[in-house]
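Help wanted!
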Amino acid sequence: MISKIEFVGSTRDYVYRKVKDQIINWDYKPGVKISEKEIADKLNVSRTPVREAFLQLAQEELLKIVPQSGTIVSKIDLELVEEGRFTREHIEKAITREACEKLDDNQLILLKTNIAMQEFCIEKGSHSRLFQLDEEFHQILFDVCNKKRTWELIRKMNSHFDRLRVLRLARNHNWNIVVDQHKEIFTYISQSKPDLAEVKMEEHIKLVIVEKEELKIKYPEYFK
Amino acid sequence: MISKIEFVGSTRDYVYRKVKDQIINWDYKPGVKISEKEIADKLNVSRTPVREAFLQLAQEELLKIVPQSGTIVSKIDLELVEEGRFTREHIEKAITREACEKLDDNQLILLKTNIAMQEFCIEKGSHSRLFQLDEEFHQILFDVCNKKRTWELIRKMNSHFDRLRVLRLARNHNWNIVVDQHKEIFTYISQSKPDLAEVKMEEHIKLVIVEKEELKIKYPEYFK
DNA sequence: ATATTTTAATATACTAGTATGGTAGTTGAT
DNA sequence: ATCAACTACCATACTAGTATATTAAAATAT
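Answered by r_m:
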């Protein structure tokens, strides 16, 4: 029972994070069956915290629970991906404008540090760390505007997109362009030029548009 | 056990809707204690479906669960209200633009019917039905753009605002202006004039801005 | 009398077992 | 051979009881 308990929070949270992580990383592939008992046994916990984690994941549409029947890992839904992209684009543009007004000296330093670390990671070639820093950059902008929850919501809305991203992560990701864009966005925000900052942000978000339809043709069994 | 079961779905869903409804309508006031057992006894169900409903409500920040200690109805958080307003404004402006392109004949009739019913309700003075039709009007626009989930998300984000609205619902709500704005927005969308439609929508959303700070001063114990 | 420790009560967190319904495989009739 | 009815199995849904942590009251020491 008391094994390698790497959780700080509740058992439910531990199960939630673990299963979500495994879904995003394709350990559990879209469409496969998965059951409360299976996970409970695997993680050495009872069914209830697993069930509670499942309910949470079902709300985020990563699992599809069919009452009295079974649960499967949701297939990737391109309409959901589009809703996530749409929401992110429009909210983040607005955030960028607002950040121009609200940025204080402390947060300016945070962004500067973040970007410096990004440049460092490019030289070192540590892409997974770069990925984190990318996320962090955007999160800081939401923090500046006092809109942490909105960021979390956008993250949750994009979990299907996250799975797509993993598929192509190894491939041709031009991090140089990404970091350059971050630098430009930062510059415009720090100079309080909302129009220019917004345009750059839009361009930045549209850069990561994925070849969704091609992937759907290549792996049709993983799509809805 | 088998009493007036008015639920079509699961017990969990029944409890969720019931408790949420009671919170929004101030039957359970912000800050009061509430427990799984209390609700379970009151609704004649066991603790688990109540617990699951609680978890859902806690995610929407309508309940605050303190582990091993207790649960209270969340006090109204004006920062959350602002995040909800912000998100709604920017998403709905974008939806309005997109609706100009995507509206088909069938949906056009739906909107026309909706507005006709709104006018009818104004004459009859049935404000609660008007309230529903108002919600429906906006929902149709999201449907037009194939973004049902985004609408649901915005609804959930605004549950604290919904509580504020109930406080002032009886009072001076000028439904005539609201319905006129709906008509104008509809006209511009049907004529595919995105710029004009967007401006009207922004104006429309900003009409319902509530005197938040005044309410906070008047009822400080209900606010965070 | 006040501060500290102990104890009892009570809330959520978790475990385990039962109920219920859906599904697939098997059996039987045509 | 095909189709319908039956049956056995297994999934989630729910119930009930135990574990554990927090909180506040009671007892004790200073």
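OP: Thanks! One thing I noticed: Residues 11-73 of chain A form a domain with the Arc Repressor Mutant, subunit A fold (CATH 1.10.10.10).
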